[in-house]
Design the sequence.
């Protein structure tokens, strides 16, 4: 009984906040994510002020205690109620929250290192995974620049799915390696990522989609996956609550998995840091100094860093960062929205996805349903605001798929951006300058690909013979016309 | 004594809690019935299985989630009683009072670092994942798919006012006086906000004024929606668009578009900070006083009151007048003691105050969320850690959107009325 509770929803104690602060999670968004405070059914109404007061006492600056973002719905609201809203008349533009006022981000103290052999821009899982793998390969003179807090981008906003069910041998190979890494991540990296092989169940509502999953399953079999095309009755053995009348067949792979994304990012960051990488958050790249065919230095809002190699791993921001060097990338950011319900006892084993609508959802280890759905009318743009239209569209889709979900309450919605390329495949390797390497364009599946891809990329940078992905996924494929489109993008 | 012996408060029905029948009054909240029955435990907490009871008693804190008629994670404080209502406690093995998993709390007095448990080997981490999944979650899946909600209605008003406390009522009155159709929404079952505590502090308008305003709003073609929670404030083009979850006349969603909005959502109850601060029996003072005033609930025999100022003084007097032995605690609390319910407070000066109920009347946190969604500027009060809305002229925070009352910082009800009136008049002009 000696515990002092700071967040009663999630049983977060005052000591938990102190420990997080000591570990370097100094801003409130990071403390929220590391401790879980404010992520329960009350959504911070009962802990935000107490947490802020405690952090001020610990020495946080006013910028560090900027309150975490307000997320609708402000009160847990049943999916059935949200599904009663007609989304067709609701705006897709804009949303909540409005952009934060400039100058409110924390200002880290101290000078930047004057030079580093490798500067990685972007503190998502791609950049951090690469930093870690470079260090493991002996390249420890690495500086990583992140403009916000860790997990502020798509790596902290995705649904945590890791699946091998792809449509090309390359993607299947990468995803399988990522699954392997995920399985041993907790023991190797010393932090739980709650990797759980609950399987992936793709539902095919039309004849055409049913044929497509048959074709995929044959490819999967050739590549050693256990994917099976199953009937609605068999799918109902996996998820008894499914409305079987809504699909003709399903693609089932029991080996696919879900993880909890945030600790994955922290795990890479802390190991990379321990091995030598300097991970600098709240540090924004503002330009580059170039010299002939090389980038000489990266310029930030805190000073410049001279560098031999610069890696652009900025996800949906990659195009804008490359543009600072005058390099034109074809990537386009496209918002994808997502939400989470109140936690329930475990009932849903797999990640479920409906082909066509792009609906996907799974049950997190904390018991919440986490799910999203793309919107075909979504315009291109860097937008992470949340719309009422999404709440209505998602709620209609999930309650048609599983009528029981109408009784679950939505707790919080948010949005992230996919980093979309013309052929839905990544862009890897040098672009514009000999030492300006791209690691971007993963179209919503960067999180699941990163463990495998960053391992290969670090090897390639360390002099290993190049994997085929560094020959296939170059920027100049678009000019050469050697493009093959990946079409199993979900969300 | 669990209720005031006024015939108005006599139970007229029974609800069923974990299979046992409890007397209740039709329409009162399930938490009122539980407190009147001396049963402040409703569940066990998410991670450590600590006893959980309702804290705020007004829909903000989520410490009172129960299963109601087969639906999980329902706030007991927002659920009206009716005869035969089935309530089950959650997240406990063998009932919330004697949950076997309560051992987790005792075995881990310093807490469990879930980020690192089991990470010493792949097998251990797999066990950690499996065990955690089994233990996670609060309620169980619903017994059955709920019936379809009626289609959400879409309405246009001249103005919307969120919150029907002193500020919101005054704003709605000013808008109605200007001949505008007003949608006045309040999360609670009745308008009045903090006036429902019946503390009658100097300058407080009488609670009957809430009914006068409601009438004035209706005469001008507007409406009051009680049990109506605004879940977000978007814009459709330039026009503010609120999605409101209404539970007053059967659940339904309302989308309300109005060119003017006054946000007057008041504050959220804040827990005290000391060891054992989550024990059942610790409540926000305002929620407790409303339960006392409207349902005659006397939550125990000995109450302590925490907090300074006129509201805390008046709260102590009200609880004493209801027959409780009351101690107004004016020094720091070191820790709360008790097993499944608060039994005593250990004070920093070494004294121990025996009590089964603590009414927390310390500063509350401005309910700034909707205003933040509209783009309001915030200001930190370092003493409380709370952020309040810092509005411009007459409460303006964004085009067509105003804020008034306690979400702009501590103020008396009389001051809130004045700010609400100014915001309402400015909104009517704009």
Sequence:
């Amino acid at each position: 009984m000696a515990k002092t509770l700071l967040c009663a929803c999630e049983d977060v104690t005052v000591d938990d906040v102190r420990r997080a602060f000591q570990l370097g999670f100094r801003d409130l968004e990071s403390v929220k994510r590391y401790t879980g405070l404010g992520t329960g059914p009350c959504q911070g109404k009962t802990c935000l002020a107490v947490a802020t007061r405690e952090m001020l006492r610990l020495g946080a600056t006013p910028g560090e205690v900027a309150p975490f973002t307000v997320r609708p719905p402000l009160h847990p609201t049943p999916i059935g109620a949200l599904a009663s809203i007609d989304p067709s008349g609701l705006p897709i533009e804009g949303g909540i929250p409005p952009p934060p006022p400039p100058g409110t981000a924390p200002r880290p103290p101290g000078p930047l290192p004057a030079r580093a052999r490798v500067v990685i821009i972007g503190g998502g899982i791609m950049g951090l995974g690469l930093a870690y793998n470079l260090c493991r390969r002996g390249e420890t003179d690495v500086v990583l620049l992140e403009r916000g807090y860790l997990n502020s981008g798509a790596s902290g906003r995705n649904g945590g799915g890791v699946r091998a069910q792809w449509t090309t041998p390359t993607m299947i190979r990468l995803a399988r390696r990522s699954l392997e890494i995920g399985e041993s991540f907790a023991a190797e990296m010393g932090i739980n990522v709650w990797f759980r092989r609950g399987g992936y169940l793709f539902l095919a509502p039309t004849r055409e989609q049913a044929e497509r999953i048959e074709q995929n399953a044959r490819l999967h079999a050739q590549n050693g996956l256990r994917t099976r095309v199953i009937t609605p009755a068999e799918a109902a053995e996996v998820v008894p609550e499914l409305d079987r009348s809504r699909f003709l067949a399903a693609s089932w792979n029991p080996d696919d998995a879900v993880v909890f994304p945030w600790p994955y990012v922290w795990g890479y960051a802390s190991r990379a840091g321990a091995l030598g990488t300097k991970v600098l958050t709240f540090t924004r790249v503002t330009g580059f100094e170039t010299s002939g065919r090389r980038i000489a230095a990266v310029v930030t809002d805190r000073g410049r860093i001279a560098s031999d190699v610069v890696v652009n791993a900025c996800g949906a921001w990659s195009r804008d960062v490359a543009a600072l060097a005058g390099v034109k990338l074809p990537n386009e950011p496209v918002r994808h929205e997502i939400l989470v319900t109140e936690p329930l006892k475990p009932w849903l084993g797999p990640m479920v996805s409906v082909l066509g609508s792009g609906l996907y959802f799974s049950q997190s280890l904390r018991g919440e349903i986490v799910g999203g759905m793309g919107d075909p009318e979504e315009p291109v743009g860097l937008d992470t605001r949340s719309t009422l239209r999404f709440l209505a569209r998602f709620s209609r889709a999930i309650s048609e798929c599983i009528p029981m979900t109408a009784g679950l309450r939505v707790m919080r919605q948010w949005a992230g951006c996919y980093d979309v390329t013309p052929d839905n495949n990544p862009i890897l390797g040098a672009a514009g300058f000999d030492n300006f390497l791209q690691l971007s364009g993963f179209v919503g599946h960067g999180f699941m690909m990163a463990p495998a891809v960053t391992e290969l990329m670090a090897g390639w940078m360390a002099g290993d013979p190049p994997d085929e992905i560094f020959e296939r996924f170059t920027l100049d494929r678009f000019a050469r016309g050697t493009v093959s489109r990946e079409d199993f993008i979900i969300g | 004594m669990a209720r005031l012996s006024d015939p108005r408060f006599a139970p007229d029905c029974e609800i069923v809690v974990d299979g046992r029948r409890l007397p209740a009054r039709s329409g009162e909240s399930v938490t009122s019935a539980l407190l009147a029955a001396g049963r402040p435990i409703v569940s066990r907490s998410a991670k450590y299985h600590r006893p959980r009871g309702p804290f705020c008693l007004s829909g903000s804190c989520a410490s009172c989630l129960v299963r109601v008629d087969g639906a999980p994670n329902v706030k007991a404080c927002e659920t009206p009683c009716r005869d035969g209502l089935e309530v089950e406690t959650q997240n406990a093995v063998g009932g919330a009072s004697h949950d076997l998993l309560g051992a987790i709390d005792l075995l881990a007095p310093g807490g469990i670092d879930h980020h690192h448990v089991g990470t010493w080997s792949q097998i251990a981490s797999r066990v950690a994942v499996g065990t955690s999944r089994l233990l996670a979650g609060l309620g169980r899946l619903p017994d059955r798919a709920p019936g379809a909600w009626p289609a959400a209605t879409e309405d246009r008003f001249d103005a919307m006012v969120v919150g029907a406390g002193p500020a919101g009522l005054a704003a709605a009155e000013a808008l109605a006086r200007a001949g505008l159709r007003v949608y006045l929404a309040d999360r609670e079952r009745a308008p009045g906000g903090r006036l429902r505590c019946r503390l009658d502090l100097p300058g407080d308008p009488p609670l009957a004024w809430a009914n006068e305003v409601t009438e004035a709003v209706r005469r001008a073609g507007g409406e009051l929606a009680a049990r109506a929670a605004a879940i977000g404030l978007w814009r459709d083009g330039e026009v503010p668009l609120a999605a409101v979850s209404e539970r007053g006349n059967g659940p339904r969603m309302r989308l309300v578009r109005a060119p003017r909005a006054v946000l007057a959502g008041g504050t959220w109850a804040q827990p005290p900070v000391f060891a054992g601060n989550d024990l059942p029996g610790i409540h926000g003072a305002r929620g407790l006083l409303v339960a006392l005033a409207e349902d005659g609930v006397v939550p125990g025999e000995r109450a302590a009151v925490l907090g300074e100022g006129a509201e805390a003084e008046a709260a102590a007097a009200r609880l004493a007048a209801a027959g409780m032995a009351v101690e107004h605690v004016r020094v720091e609390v070191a820790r709360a003691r008790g097993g499944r319910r608060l039994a005593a407070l250990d004070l920093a000066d070494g004294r121990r105050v025996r009590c089964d109920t603590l009414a927390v009347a310390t500063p509350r946190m401005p309910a700034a969320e909707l205003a933040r969604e509209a783009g309001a500027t915030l200001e930190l009060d370092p003493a409380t850690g709370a952020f309040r809305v810092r509005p411009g002229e007459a409460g303006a925070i964004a085009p067509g959107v105003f804020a008034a009352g306690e979400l702009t910082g501590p103020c008396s009800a009389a001051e809130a009325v004045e700010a609400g009136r100014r915001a309402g008049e400015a909104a009517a002009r704009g």
Notes: Chain B has a mean pLDDT of 96. Chain B touches chain A through 103 residues (CB under 8 Å). The longest strand of chain B covers residues 228-236. Chain B has nine helices and 28 strands.
